[in-house]
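TICKET #2291
ISSUE: user wants both folds in one file
ATTACHMENT 1:
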Amino acid sequence: MSVFRNLEARIEGLVEGVFSRAFSSEVQPVELARKLAKEMDSHKTASVSRVYVPNEYTVHLSEKDRDKLEGYERSLEQELSGYLLEHARRKGYDLLTRPEVHFNTDSRLRLGEFGIQARLVKPPAREGEMPSQADEGHTMVYKVAPQPPDDPTERPPERPSLTRAVVDLNERRYVLDGPRAVLGRSDDAECVLRDPNVSRRHAELRQDAAGQWEIFDLGSTNGVKVNGRRVTEAPLRAGDQVTIGTTTFRFGIER
C-alpha cells in the first residue's frame, strides 16, 4: 500500500475541531497563531519515513470577531499560512501543499471564542481533478471552566493612602513628603528648627504601615512633649501641640 493510501486510511482520525476561549473580550491574531500551531502538532501522522501534518485549516469565529477582521482578513490568512509553514519547517514536518487558512462565521460562538478544524488534503493527481480530503467529521467543543469568585480572606490587605505630615510654626510651615522626617537643628534634618535648645537630630516623625503618624525622641537633651506631656514616643493626631526644646508647633496632616 502506498504512503498516500496509508494516509487516506488514517486520515479520519485527524479531523477534529477545537474550540477555545482566548480572551473575554475578543480573539487576537497572536492567539490564533498559537492555537493553529497547536492543532498542527496534535494532528500529525507518521508514514514510513515522514511525519505529515494537516495543510488546510478553517478558523470559525463569532459574528462580532469576524466583523473585526474586515479589511485585512485575506492578509491575516496569508500571514497565518506563513506562520504555519515556518512552524512545520522548524519541527521537521512534511506538508502535501502549503498550509491554507480560511475564516468562517459560526453564529453559535460568542465573542472571544473560536474553533479550528484541521484537515489533511491530498492535491489532485491530474489537472481538473478535485482534491481528496477527509470527511468533515464532528467538532469537539471545549469550554474554560469558570473561575471561582475570589475569597476575600485571601486578598492582600489594601495599603492605606499615604499622607504628609505638617509642622506648623508661627512664622513658617513645613510639609514633609516622606513617611519619615527628622526634626532638629542640623541642616541635614528634613525640618530645621533654629533653636539652641533643640538637638541636632532631636526627634523623628514616622508613618507606620496603617498610616498612623508617630513621634520618636532620638535621645535629645531637652526631650519631647505632646500636648504638654513628656514622651519618648507617641501617636500624633491633627491639631496636637508638640514641643521640642523651647519650640512649640502644631502638628497637621495633609492628604
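ATTACHMENT 2:
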Amino acid sequence: MGISAHLPFHPHLLSKHLTPILTITGSDSTSGAGIQADIRTISAMGGMAFSTITSITSQDSQGISNIYDLPEEIVTGQLEAVLRDVRPKAVKAGMIRQRNVIRAIRDEIVGCRHIVCAPGFLSSRGEELMDADTIKEYTRLLFPITSVLVLKCNEAERLFGKSIDSNADMQETASCILDMGPKAVFLRGGHCTEGLVTGLLDIAGSKEPPQFFTSPNREGWQLHGVGGTLSSAIATRLAMGDDIPTAISTAHKYIRCQVVYSISSTSHSLRKMELYNRFMEQVTAHCKESRDTAFYASLLNITPRYLAEITRYITGNSPKHIIADYLLKEIEASLRSTDKTVQEISIEYGFPSQAALAKFFKIHRGISPSEFRTGE
C-alpha cells in the first residue's frame, strides 16, 4: 500500500492553488456534455472542478434513450458535502429536471458571487429535456440569481412562443430575458446571417450596446455539448477574475477553436492531429499580430517545414493558406455583423493601412471589402 493511501484528501488545500468551480448538472455517458465535459473544460482552463450530479442519462451518438433523475436527498447530499469543504468562486448550473431539486439547489447557491446557468431545455437534437412546469420553476428561481444566462435561440423561442429570425429579434429577445432577472444573457445559435452563427451578449443596465459574436461553421456550433462547455468556460473565467464581457469573449474564443477548427478523425496521426489543433489555437490567439508561418512554428517548437507537412497531411493546404483563410473569415464576420469602418477593421487585424487590407482581401476574395459588405 502506497503512502498516499494513508493520506486524507483535503480539497481546501488544493484550492489554495487552483480556483474552485462547482458544476451542477446531469451526467453524460458519452462524455460529450454534462458533468464529464464540464470537468474537462474547467481543468483545461486552469480551474479545479467540483461537481453535483442531478441526473444520469443513457445516450450514444444517436441521442438520449433514458434519463434517471436522482432523488432530492442524493442531489442535496452531494451539494452540501462539497460546500462543507469548498467555497466555489463560481457555480455553473445546467440541467436540473425536478422542481423540488431546483428549489433546494437555489437555497444552497444563492450566496455565490458568480452563477452561470445553461438550463438545456432542449438537447442539441431538439429533444425536450424539461416539461413546462419545470421550466417555469427554473426561470422563476434561478434566473434572478444568475450572473450569466446561456440560452440557445430555439430555447428562447420556446420560452416566449415566437421565432427569432433577425439580429433585431435577438436583441428584443435578450431584453425580454433580462427582464426575468439575470445580470447578463448570452443568446447563442442565431442563424440570421447566411453562413455564420451568431451569439449576442446583453448586460442589464449597461451603457454599452449589446455585443454580437459571429463565427463560421454553423454545424460545429450545434454539436452536442457546446452550450454546456461554453457555460463552464464562462464560469471558470468569471471565477478567475474576468468581468462578464471578457469572460464571455475568452470562453467564446476557446470554444470556437474547439468546435470550429479542431479535428479529431481517427484516420490522422495522433501526434499530427494534436499539433494541428495547437496550431489552430495559436492562429485564433495571434492572427491579428502575425501571418508568418515561422512565427507559429516557433510557438509549437517545430520547424516551418514540419508545420507545412502537418497542415498538408490534415487539410491538404499550407499553413499560409490556413492562416489567411481564418483571417478572411474573421474580417468577413466583422464586415457583415458590425458597423466598424474598413479602416477600423484594418487596424484591428494588424494591417498597416486600409489599402493593405483591401489588397489582401482582393487577392483572396476577388472583390474589395466594401463590395463584400454591400453585396455588390
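RESOLUTION: both attachments delivered.
EXTRA DETAIL ON ATTACHMENT 2: Residues 1-9 have pLDDT under 50 and may be disordered.
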